[in-house]
Amino acid sequence: xxxxxxxxxxxxxxxxxxxxxxxxxxxxxxxxxxxxxxxxxxxxxxxxxxxxxxxxxxxxxxxxxxxxxxxxxxxxxxxxxxxxxxxxxxxxxxxxxxxxxxxxxxxxxxxxxxxxxxxxxxxxxxxxxxxxxxxxxxxxxxxxxxxxxxxxxxxxxxxxxxxxxxxxxxxxxxxxxxxxxxxxxxxxxxxxxxxxxxxxxxxxxxxxxxxxxxxxxxxxxxxxxxxxxxxxxxxxxxxxxxxxxxxxxxxxxxxxxxxxxxxxxxxxxxxxxxxxxxxxxxxxxxxxxxxxxxxxxxxxxxxxxxxxxxxxxxxxxxxxxxxxxxxxxxxxxxxxxxxxxxxxxxxxxxxxxxxxxxxxxxxxxxxxxxxxxxxxxxxxxxxxxxxxxxxxxxxxxxxxxxxxxxxxxxxxxxxxxxxxxxxxxxxxxxxxxxxxxxxxxxxxxxxxxxxxxxxxxxxxxxxxxxxxxxxxxxxxxxxxxxxxxxxxxxxxxxxxxxxxxxxxxxxxxxxxxxxxxxxxxxx
Amino acid sequence: xxxxxxxxxxxxxxxxxxxxxxxxxxxxxxxxxxxxxxxxxxxxxxxxxxxxxxxxxxxxxxxxxxxxxxxxxxxxxxxxxxxxxxxxxxxxxxxxxxxxxxxxxxxxxxxxxxxxxxxxxxxxxxxxxxxxxxxxxxxxxxxxxxxxxxxxxxxxxxxxxxxxxxxxxxxxxxxxxxxxxxxxxxxxxxxxxxxxxxxxxxxxxxxxxxxxxxxxxxxxxxxxxxxxxxxxxxxxxxxxxxxxxxxxxxxxxxxxxxxxxxxxxxxxxxxxxxxxxxxxxxxxxxxxxxxxxxxxxxxxxxxxxxxxxxxxxxxxxxxxxxxxxxxxxxxxxxxxxxxxxxxxxxxxxxxxxxxxxxxxxxxxxxxxxxxxxxxxxxxxxxxxxxxxxxxxxxxxxxxxxxxxxxxxxxxxxxxxxxxxxxxxxxxxxxxxxxxxxxxxxxxxxxxxxxxxxxxxxxxxxxxxxxxxxxxxxxxxxxxxxxxxxxxxxxxxxxxxxxxxxxxxxxxxxxxxxxxxxxxxxxxxxxxxxxxxxxxxxxxxxxxxxxxxx
Lengths: 523, 549
Description:
The complex is a heterodimer of chains A (523) and B (549). With 523 residues, chain A is mainly alpha-helical. Chain A contains 20 helices and 2 strands. Chain A has helices at 5-21, 28-52, 82-101, 118-138, 142-151, 153-162, 172-208, 213-221, 229-246, 255-262, 265-290, 292-318, 323-343, 347-378, 389-392, 394-407, 414-429, 431-456, 472-490, 493-509, and strands at 61-69, 74-80. A two-stranded antiparallel ribbon of chain A has the order 1-2. The radius of gyration of chain A is 22 Å and the shape is globular. The mean pLDDT of chain A is 84. Chain B has a 3-stranded antiparallel sheet with strand order 4-3-5. Helix content of chain B is 68%, strand content 2%. Chain B has one domain. In chain B, a hairpin with a 4-residue loop joins β1 (88-90) and β2. The longest helix of chain B has 33 residues, at 207-239. Chain B is an all-alpha fold and 549 residues long. Chain A binds chain B through residues 67-72, 112-113, 115-117, 146-148, 150-151, 153-154, 157-158, 161-162, 173, 176, 179-180, 183-184, 187-188, 191-192, 195-196, 198-199, 202-203, 205-206, and chain B through 432-436, 446, 451-453, 457-458, 461-462, 464-465, 468-469, 473, 476-477, 479-481, 483-484, 487-488, 491-492, 495, 498-502, 533-535, 538-539, 542. Chain B: Its main location: membrane.
């Protein structure tokens, strides 16, 4: 038997999480280094997966399959396609930065009991989330996916509720109340979504008799598994609901601004750049493959919701006074683009959406982490409390600008390519929706540039006049992300080469052909 | 004197009684129950003859040995094939020895053993007058607050009678799911109920509340027993027999010989329907299903916490076992009549338990309502009326009982000056003071909520799957909705423990003896093992899923 590479990518952070949690209370720094090393080792494994992955080979590669719960028809089945491998790499890439950016976020303020070890817990939880997200990207068994899709809520919940942003306007008590409100809201939204999906998962079992994605998709394709139209639609809705909460899609998005606002900046990145990607990824992998007919049936409604997300998210971002909530609404707008790309049912749209997931992860991480550094210096999340920062902290301001420009999809930076592909892909089939969505870009320019103008330019406010520029640790976090944004903006081929074959297979699952004239995707 | 000699004007001589057939008793097949009953009687003798000082150790020893031996007997019977390839009806048709019976007996015995550990815990309360005390009243008969109570406490009395009472209750529970005729069912019901009523009244602290709980439980329980008994009488009137097999044949209309009396009553559906409904009502009372759940919160709150934990786990197992047997063995022919009713009961139980739990402020009451919601989930599996339905219920019961005992064992640890600190506000910030205890309790709560990778999820998935396959898809939808509602209050406790600031006058966490630690550790281990690798136990439940008739 060959080395179970995919299992290893998930088991390593899981074991790392346990080891980190077990570090004695006094050895906080050791716990941080341990977590960082584990995340780097995971990245190395993920790169190995990337190298071993052959884009033109079989659809699912590096597969593993073991009996697990025969009674439920559940197998432990892993395998990655191009989309999965891209997101796996993104996750493994971002976690070390998240850990490094949150280096001091969980240092204990007051000494609790002797056994109270918040720092160890913080980093252990991040690694636990990484393990669960990775296995959701790898699972080709619906039940296995579901288990980790749900289970990852628990460590996320503790990360949001247990380790809040210290830069809070109100009193400590108020901050704690808002934080636990945000955590509970996050958990309840996602749990309700997950439980509705559970009903659909059970329904799928009753219809199909097993949970293997490949087997079911194959049986659907060659007609041996026939679903009644209504059954398929209900099951599709059950799955889609959970993913739409996770993604999040308007009108199920309201948990995200709370969660991202109250969490520390690295955790906010973890939510939006890593965990939420599972939602959009699952739409591509499970909704389209398992329920192709229902997906086509629901497309118009979903496109309209995605469009609302794009415009609504952008409009609300314009109106925000809180930096982190602004980024959260911008993310809602971007998730609208991703979902629109997926359900446009064109290969450009889906390639673009996958690329968008990767780029959004990197660009949001860059913007949010720099914003986090900024906020930790001044101790406030309000835009109005800043001004003229670029004079005192030019590097900080510069990286903040690049992150912002990436968010508004400036040509030459990575998100531009993906946003362009999504819009082209949508326009080819739904011109009106494509045109309206373009306004999202205009609004994006508005909210990012206004944010930059208000915080970084103008007269230097007295409170920020002594603000130090980025430190070494912070530079190490930001610089690689900026380099990646520029590199993938100029040369996205490495990612599109991996993604495109997988998108083609998905397109053939839904029996969709690209409308003429054919536009070659990102060549 | 011969028989003829008593012949007179008023009496006529009976046929001379030549010989009574001695009933044939299969001691081997009945050994689990017999061992526990025997040990309970030894326990009574220990109370009478062993000096007060050594009673605790003697009782603990007898009980542990008996429960282990009985479990070994169950395993031996199962290994002999009684759970899989063959099944027996023992004691002249009174007791069934089949898969479900053995599976549930094994579960009850293990749950009883773990429960016993929490009964025997003597390190939580501070020593009074130089002697260690457990959770039970010094002297049950002394009036609360009276001088006699004070002198009993001063003398260091402990109510070691709880051990034989526990064993009697377990013995009744062992028979209950195995009973193969209605009279045995009723006798078993009383055998396990009476000791429980008594145990509920024995709390060391808050004695009035405990006694009130016991009286409520007793009155309502007696009422339910009366219902059951009346139902038994009606069903006997209908079928002319109390034996499960015979009644089932009469219901199906496949009875071999119909004598005129039977032909007369067989047509009377009122007898059958009312009788069946009353028996099922009595059983639903015991499982705590809405609308027969009113006793649950008060009793769970008032009873000594070890008793609550044991009762919540083992009573549910035994009662669902009996309910399964009644519905699947006696009344399958009536399926089209009872299914709609049980649908309604399951729906209101799931929703009612979950919704009312939201407003609770006492941890024991909260767990009580949670147990009601869980009864609803199990009912969803019962309604499936498929072999999968049986095995999923068996699995759920096993998973649930260990979570429950573990959770209540944790409740016994969190204490302040007044004993256990059960008010939720006192649990604020527990995660800061004692991260380990809070984390363990969080695991139990997540299992109750049915989060994946815990036994709660595997169990919930099993019953919902069975229900969906059995054509009860709407029940599954109601089930997931009430799971979502229930998740809210489990999460609230977790929020309280981890995200709230600890109070300065908050409770402390007692350091328990290895007894309670074992109970909690077993609970956590079972929760995680059944959550991550449930296959072996699902197989076990599957093999055990066939009733004998």
